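Continuing the series of single-chain predictions for the mutant panel. This is the parent chain; the variants come on the following pages.
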Amino acid sequence: MTGSRRGLWRLLALLFAFSLIAAACGGGDDDDADGGSTDAGTQTADDDMSDEDMADEDMSDEAEPEDEGSIGGGITQEALEEDAAEGEGDMADEDMADDGMVSVNIDDFDLSTIDGIWELAAAQRGAIVANLTAGMEAGEYGVGDDGILRGPSGFEIDMNECPADWSDTTGITDDTIRIGQTTVKSGNLAAYGDITVGWENYYEYVNATGGVDGKDMVLISRDDGYVAAQTIEFIDELIESENVFALHTLGSPNTLAVYDQINDECIPQVMVATGHPAWGDPVNHPWTTGMQMSYSTEAILWGNWIRQNLADELPVKVAGLVMDNDFGLAYELGFEAYAHANPDVVSEFVPVRHDPAAPTLTNEVTTIAAASPDVFISMTAGNPCLLAIQEVDASGLLDDLSVAFTPSVCRAVAAYMAPAGDSADGWWNVGGGVKDSTDPQHVDEPFIAFLRGELADRGLDPEISLLGTGYYFAYPHTEAIRVAVELPGGLTRTNFILAARSLDIYHPLLLDGINFAADGAVDGYYIEGSDFSQYDADGQTWDIVGDIVDVNGGSPNCAWDKDNGGCR
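Parent structure:
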């Protein structure tokens, strides 16, 4: 074993052992750089981890993590086992309220109709508003005389550190609420641009039905081409020239490149379109929240699936096709940590990285096939997901595998699965509980029928999955803004971030049994559960196999160490 590899294992051991401590203590982020990415957003694990970086010189090479299968930002093995033993997958009212808190019984609402969904949404917003208002009126929440913004469960922001010219109401005019966004609309990941189109379509509906607080929602979007340097430039423009109220970003390397700056500027960056574990950091990056299931959680659930379903073959060799940037690194580190902690499940993990801009993946898949893995996991995004499915089949590797996974970010049927044809049949996905708005099993559900109708009415194709994904992001983002409007002082940036850190709502684009909730400084992740689904190419649908896993609140927060590529 080389020195750098020993250093990696030793770092992962520390991450496991100290992830809970970091979450509880909220260790400060001492990084000075604006981001941890190169211009192309590329970072590799081995380049960034060396023995010299280790804090504990006495830890032996054989040291094992304290907690099997968990790093910061990923669900703990203990939480997984408790969920399996106690059957806590169903959303329960007792999970949604603490003593003395206003709560809503979802059984009181008819969720088989769109009107029932709107009524539940209004009731849940009302409960959140009541609870936050009570805290604000008691002097426990809100900005105090000392300039500290306080919220539920120890959430705090020192507003004294905000820029001198900062305003709580920037981006709000008499007629509009301006949200700035950077995303990718060109290159290998261009399909993700449809998320913005879907988001804008939802805003068109909201604005046509009265807006929010009588104001139109406006999304000002810029195409950064998935290049972090371009993201930085556009974020500067959105802040300085467009004077936006809040910001939204897509992509792990892109978001890592700007989230320090955005937090220094005291601008909400809510529900970013990336599952990197770094967004679960309410202490050091209080203005930034993620949205989807953490990639660390996904990696652990891959391992858990292998443990349970390939028991007769264990331990197995696993190969990962990894996008060579911060996004892929999060997946790679998460699964490598699981593999190291569970040698009875994974005998060897072989990651093979690819250039995000590569037009083909033939060489990488050939390398993987030569390693003769039992399990293949695609740890990439965008068009490379489709290429991976096609190449794995064309190489003959698929016939020799016990299972092949495509990642949660490439669940969209129309964008990635259907174009692969029969090559996609039988692939597995740990999807974070997200419904595909083009999947035949969901198209008649009231909210999906509503969004499909809205898309069609405005000349868009409802058979494009990622347009529905735009609604997946826009719906809870707008709900948080609606909550902020009703808080004392009305819509402000500080009220918006309090609302975002307090959301506990029914999300109509999540499978039943998956909670959507955050809790101040304690729980920085909205979604901590998933389905396990297998793709049926004939039906062009995802078939759920087994039970839904949901361990809401079971993921340690993550203070991301950009220099060493892991949680502290």
